[in-house]
Amino acid sequence: MTIGYTTGVYDLFHIGHLNLLKNARGLCDMLIVGVTVGEFVSAINDFCNNPRPRFNAYSRQIFLEKYSMNALIEKFRQAIRG
Q1: Is the pLDDT at 28 greater than 90, yes or no?
Q2: Are 72 and 32 in contact (CB under 8 A)?
Q3: Per-residue pLDDT tens for 36-75?
Q4: What does the pLDDT read at residue 52?
Q5: Is residue 14 part of a domain?
Q6: Which CATH number is 8's domain given?
Q7: Which residues contact 43 (CB under 8 A, 6 or more apart)?
Q8: Is 82 within a domain?
Q9: Domains contained in the chain, number
Q10: What pTM was computed for the model?
Q11: Are 37 and 75 in contact (CB under 8 A)?
Q12: Residue 20 sits in which domain range?
């Protein structure tokens, strides 16, 4: 069994996200998708004065569960190095 993993913000879901998930799913038997949590995204975007993410991690996770071709969806927390 081949397990694949990808991660992203998936805030404003678009065709590029859908194509990424479709292609990733085709390369493995089981795909795990990490949804980057808002705190990490906000820390990066504060530098650019960009108010993201627009939707919280729970909302993005639920959306992906509906449209991610039977992938396992999980919240992804990355350490912020200062």
Answers
A1: yes
A2: yes
A3: 876 666 665 555 666 666 777 888 888 888 877 667 787 7
A4: 64
A5: yes
A6: 3.40.50.620
A7: 80
A8: no
A9: 1
A10: 0.71
A11: yes
A12: 3-76
